[in-house]
Here is the input.
Amino acid sequence: MAALSCTMDRLAVGQRGRVCDLGPESAMRTRLQDLGLVEGTRVQCVLKSPAGSPAAYEIRGAVIALRQCDAAAVLVAPETL
Amino acid sequence: MKQTAGLRNGSEVIEEPVIALAGNPNVGKSTVFNCLTGLHQHTGNWPGKTVELAWGRVRCGDREYRMVDLPGTYSLRCHSREEEVAADFLLEEAPVCVVVVCDATCLERNLNLTLQILEHTGNVVLCVNLLDEAERKGVRVDLEMLHARLGIPVVGSAAGCGAGMEELKETICKVVDGELSMPPPREPACPRQLVLLAEELAVQTVTWEEKKRRNAGEVLDRLLMRPLTGIPILLALLLGVFWLTISGANYPSQLLQQGFDRLGIVLREWAAGWPPFLAGLLLEGVYETVTRVIAVMLPPMAIFFPIFTLLEDWGLLPRIAFLLDHRFAACGACGKQCLTMCMGIGCNAAGVTGCRIIDSPRERLIAILTNAFVPCNGRFPAMIAIITIFFAGDSPLLAALLLTGVVLLGVGMTFLSSKLLHKTVLRGEPSSFALELPPYRKPNVLRILLRSLLDRTVFVLGRAVAVAAPAGVVIWLLANCADGQILRACAGFLDPLGLLLGMNGMILMSFLLALPANELVLPVLLMQMTGSGALATVEETGALGALLRAGGWTWKTGLCTLLFFLLHWPCSTTLLTVRRETGKTRWMLLACLLPTAAGVAVCFLVNLVLRLVC
Here is the structure.
């Protein structure tokens, strides 16, 4: 199945995705790289705060909370639930 | 090749090798540090820099080495001040050995930092920590393979129960003594390559055994994240902590005060032959002030700080930041600010120092400047006394509820003033925010008691005593020189302003004199009201209430004083900490002005409304 890409903040709780584009060069991009997020990494959205932002993503075994605006810079290919 | 780091002691330079401890946040690095150095440690400046690091000593046979606990970082690429410090230290001080502590449950990401450090030096010992937690999660790490791939010594450990610590120490000693052949520094690689290399290493060394069991932590997380249950759970938690602190601290405080009073009588007899001025200054001034600060502060701190450390170690605090971040984001601030606010409840100076966890300088400043809006431990006893006397009667639960309300008002004021700062002097876009939510961990209670008692309680108490002693001298001189005329004149001068704010001149004067430590407000006030030359002791709240009422206090005075307790200038220690942390006197002045202006405005309005209504 050809996966359509969407931004990472669109992942539902429990849904997984594979990063296809980390977004433009920025402090956040470097930070995400340091946390182990690069093109090809699998992420899973594990929690969303009641307000929807921030949301928590499992990245390489660790759970990292990101704000919606930051997660929206990352493109992922979602896996169907 | 062995290098030594210069320890600058005044002008002389002592060459003493340094061992550095590095690692990601939340990997139990401090526990490893404590195990290795025992209690021989202190927090002190990195010589020549205004950065505080934890230092300790490690013994290898007959030699001792200095060990430094670097701030927890994800990389050395300098996004935050912590990372800058860690990177600078590795570059400039060139430690003889770097111990990298890793979390076995997410080794992959931890290896990224390890690889970055290996680009600086080959003398690295890898400590794969939290193996006990990994085992529970079904994660296995092949330490032999890791050693073979990286070429550096690898030690497995579970520092929480002390496992592997002896082996780690022996390995460090071997590296320092040059008994092991260490690899040269790695060739620098780009960030993406490092991540992929870390992934490759993890694939070769880590095996997962899928465990489907849903743990209690996940259930709690889900409950916390529901709008209907999340906030109530937090409020109940806050209430519970206050209730424990209030009801638990009451009796020990009284005992301490009685003990100090008895000792005071003995001291007075002993000093009977001294000149009256000297005896008065030392006993009624210094001794009374210092012992009062200890009696009032020690028990609540000895209860609050361990509870706080417990929640911290358990992993709840980052979840609170996660839950509340959108509110802080709306005020242009960072969610981690609520962690520094929690610390501020213990001590505002500690809260201001804690603001280092916030990456963006702008958001850090907001958190620093607004920290005094959460009432600190020094203010609690007096606030509780006022609440008990005028509002709650003898129900500790009602008192805890009302106190929670006051703290929530402080939180509201924090949001308001953060937003104000964001719209005026600290304009800018909210910065990026990446907060790790570590798994819930069973805290080691004994270690927590010991550490929070040593690190926080004794530290804060020591600082409070250091400012209380000179304050005692000033207060005593003011009250006794010229028969207390100066003090009365000052209070009289402040009276019109005090009345405008629903209080009186004496109360304002007490707040001013208590600048070194908030816990002095009530004793100084009583000293003025009873007209005695020494800080007055009132054993029970009932007697205190009678005294206040006789002095013309009504519940309105109580309310305005309570509000002013919440909203006024922070103590001198906090102000000095603000200047140290920001490096600018003008931020210190703003940190003083902001809560004071809020307090004056709120008290003036409340008083106005009360006068119009009743």
User: Anything to note?
Assistant: Chain B has a mean pLDDT of 84. The CA atoms of residues 275 and 281 of chain B lie 10 Å apart. The two ends of chain B are 81 Å apart (CA to CA). Chain B touches chain A through 44 residues (CB under 8 Å).
